[in-house]
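User: I'm new to structure prediction. If I give you an amino acid sequence, what do you actually give back? Let's try with this one:
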Amino acid sequence: MHAYRSHTCTDLNKDNVGETVRLSGWVHRVRDHGGLLFIDLRDHYGITQVMADPDSPVFSEIEKVRNEWCIRIDGEVRARDASLVNDKLSTGEVEVFVRDIEILGAAEELPLMVFGDQEYPEETRLKYRYLDLRREKMQKNMKLRSDVVSSMRKRMWDKGFREFQTPIITSSSPEGARDFLIPSRLHPGKFYALPQAPQQFKQLIMVSGYDKYFQIAPCFRDEDPRADRSPTDFYQLDLEMSFVEQQDVFDTIQPVITGIFEEFGKGRKVDQTWEQISYRDAALWYGSDKPDLRNPIKMQVVSEHFRDSGFAIFAKLLEQDGTEVRAIPAPTGGGRKFCDRMNVFAQKEGLPGMGYIFWRKQSADSIAQERGITVKNVNALIKSGEIILGNEAAGPLAKNIGPARTEAIRQQLGLTVGDAAFFLGGKPKTFEPIAGKARAVIGDELGLTDLNRFAFAWIVDFPIYERDSETGKIDFEHNPFSMPQGGMAALNGKPEDVLGFQYDLACNGYELVSGAIRNHRPEIMFKAFEIAGYGKDEVEKRFGGMVNAFQYGAPPHGGCAAGVDRIVMLLADADNLRDVIMFPMNQRAEDLMMSAPSMPHNEQMRELRLRIIPADD
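Assistant: Good question. You get back a string of structure tokens that encode the predicted 3D arrangement of the chain. For your 617 residues, that looks like this:
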């Protein structure tokens, strides 16, 4: 028999009854039933119940065993009584009577329990990550991650792509975040950098004539952490193709992503048709360039209904250039309590409040006040059919702008009795993030968001440039390496109107994929950077390797990268990226388990010819 096991803890069933078996694993939990000891023995594959009574030759040894001890047992497979069968376990029809035991690894008192669903502070979970990873939820998450990556690779190979590895130590290249720098021992005073992405290398692979490339690529960025972003490193499905247009990239990656979500999405609906939404429309309708389309709410501009109106705040605001008022429809949200809750939300976001209108059935009181007659007379007229109750708008805004304007707003938004609308105004870029959050809260609270669906949309037509409102200086708003729509001719017009062949894929409120058709023409690239204030010498200095290569017959090319961590996070129903990464950093970019970052030894510093400047207090 093998030294440690003849079977795993998920192998045994009624066919094994009577056999002598050997199992190894961890003590998941111990139950003492008055002279009968039961142990749930767990390994990577599952759980088997083992038991002992005083007749067992090692009963006294088994009594010493505690949770998370690593043990080996030999024993006889027995069928459970029908009333004791556990349908939740694949091995639930049997148990193993222990005849021998070996302690492979005793465990000290645990800083966190593996059995059960207890919540622990993240710092504790990360410090003792090896224990946290033993928990059932984490085991499932990491298996899922491995299976997703395997499926990605297979799907890419099936599409005719080959996997090539690109360097991990390279030169610094601005990709929108801070680099991790590595000092060179052989070249004192000079530094390598960990790649923020394989961007330049994968483009050089296209110049080298390989046509289709992909890689499950590690990327390194010194970023401030968020729930959906790692502060140090992440992995992406990176791909690039030659002789393609934007739609070719979409047609390539869509079946890969769709297949992944169908394979691992636990039966949830996966959108088959992916809408293409311009960046500007996404901001207008959803307040975000990564909209959650499970939520049907679409915001609209309603400025004209407030211009020169009785609501002075919006009326005066609209006298300023570049301002507008947008409405967030709230179907079924037409109650004062809900409107008040949304006002509280706005105040938590730093606003004084959020204007609203809700529509309700007309009341006899309001008609009496409007006509100057008694409520009794109104009721009589209603009874006789001379007055038919319609709908009326309520709320502070409705009183200020009057019934004609509120009715026009209702008709524009397609709302009816029992619905509401919320309003924000100003320069769009200042209020769009809050409007986007408000839209999400409204959709969630009113039950409008379809939680059993993965909803995808391509966000396209990103502007390449933006103008600083204070200095008037033009700078890049998005990827400077995207091919401008219209090529060189587009760059001779107004910079703010130049759009790039750049695209993101949004799913359920997250950006899953980002990519572009690349600017492979040196003359167009130099012109694009010149508009943003970068001379030819500066471009050649920063991106010399790529620019030089483009002068030797570069093909048109483009591609994208899909975030592995975020995809797995969505599939696992996790709220935090760190729940789907094996050994993540904490919020302060620290590895509490391995004590990183740490101070280097003096000898290391001397070899690198570096010294540390103390931080200011």
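You can read the tokens as a compact description of the fold. Here is one thing that stands out. The first strand starts at residue 20 and ends at 32.
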